[in-house]
Amino acid sequence: MNETQEPTPEPRRTSNGNGNGNAAHGGNGAVPHGLRPRGEGGLNLKPSGRLNAIPTEARGTAPVDSSAPIENAVFRCRDVNVFYGAKQALKGVSIDVAPRQVLAMIGPSGCGKSTFLRCLNRMNDTIPGARVTGSIVLDGRDIYDPERDAAQLRARIGMVFQKPNPFPKSIYDNVAYGPRIHKLTRSRAELDDVVCSSLTRAGLWDEVKDRLGSPGTGLSGGQQQRLCIARTIAIQPEVILMDEPCSALDPIATARIEDLIDELREQYAIVIVTHSMQQAARVSQRTAYFHLGELIEVGETDRVFTNPRHRLTEDYITGRFG
Ligand SMILES: Nc1ncnc2c1ncn2[C@@H]1O[C@H](COP(=O)(O)OP(=O)(O)OP(=O)(O)O)[C@@H](O)[C@H]1O
Ligand SMILES: [Mg+2]
Predict the structure, then answer these.
(1) Neighbours of ion ligand 2 (CB under 5 A)
(2) Is the pLDDT of residue 158 over 90?
(3) Can you tell me the distance from the alpha carbon of 132 to that of 119, in angstroms, rounded to the nearest whole number?
(4) Sheet harboring 130-138: ordered strands across?
(5) Which of 55, 102, 203, 304 is the most exposed place for a label (fewest CB within 10 A)?
């Protein structure tokens, strides 16, 4: 089955291109002042409320073929399996990651979302006993090719974690760290420019411009996460991986990060793991649903939330599972 052949619901395009840019922020209902307006329309608080009136019996139970290739894909993953010792955590995952688009990965705890994310920058290499099979192609070459330098690869693939993890260094040095070790700038003035533009793009410059020498760890949680995003984009990666980047943040800080993700996708491919289906619907253009290590279904976010093809996806997004 090809996801592009599936009839999609009436498009409701907004600023983030997925029809959900006006969705209310999950949980609090308050619209933070000064942020992108989030009105009544769109997905709202209950994605399941938008499900088309398709009888459950009409949804399949066979795995949905998710390998429909995407033109100009940044990553092409085919039949990816991950083992931790004897335990298989990921089973035959095939998916493409498109440029300038946000791919959300959702699914119950332990289904393999973080494991898959870690495959994309070879972070599983650092876990003793972890083994990856299958192919993950970036620029026409497998990233697990033994001749590929994992450190160089990670410089092209930024990662933002659940818990903000600024280095115990100044705000300036946190952002300057990557450009320095990868020798991306030739002068202090150039480095200053990169630090300033990265902090500006991360929406943090105005809050920190007068205290660039202060420790990054002294910022609030939401500011720390934006600092980590600034640190990530300072090395100009091609892809940004985010593993539940907002789970430690309040709704206002979450809204800022989501707005930022929406801006960043104009330039980067972004893969985000989230437990919030509202967040997946707000920020992503494609959504992948994982279950017990398998990729069950992937498609346009709007389609997945309004017309899931697989019974397991429907159960999850309607709250019957997980
Ligand atoms: N380092 C590890 N060693 C052994 N097993 C692991 C390791 N990391 C993850 N696993 C196992 O692999 C499976 C997938 O875990 P993973 O962390 O990818 O799930 P997840 O979907 O990200 O879950 P969550 O939503 O709770 O973060 C789980 O069964 C988990 O226990
Ligand atoms: Mg995880």
Answers:
(1) 114
(2) yes
(3) 8
(4) 87-97, 75-84, 130-138, 141-142
(5) 55
From the alpha carbon of 273, which atom of ligand 1 is closest?
Answer: 22
Residue 256 lies in a domain: yes
State which of 80, 84, 132, 162 you would mutate to test the pocket of ligand 1, scoring each by most atoms of that ligand within 8 A of its C-beta.
84
Max intra-chain CA distance, the chain: 64
| % the chain with pLDDT above 70 | 78
283, part of any domain: yes
* Distance separating the N- and C-terminal Cα atoms of the chain: 26
Domains of the chain: total: 1
* pLDDT band at residue 155 under the 50/70/90 scheme: confident
pLDDT recorded at residue 69? 78
Tokens of 79: 């039949």
Of all protein residues, whose CA lies closest to atom 9 belonging to ligand 1? Answer: 115
Tens-place pLDDT, residues 252-306: 889 989 999 999 999 999 999 999 999 999 999 999 999 999 999 999 999 999 9
The one-letter amino acid at 126: T
Residue 110 domain-assigned (yes or no): yes
Ligand 1 center to 116 CA (angstroms): 10
Position with higher pLDDT, 51 vs 142: 142
Mutate to test the pocket of ligand 1, among 83, 88, 90, 111 (most ligand atoms within 8 A of CB): 111
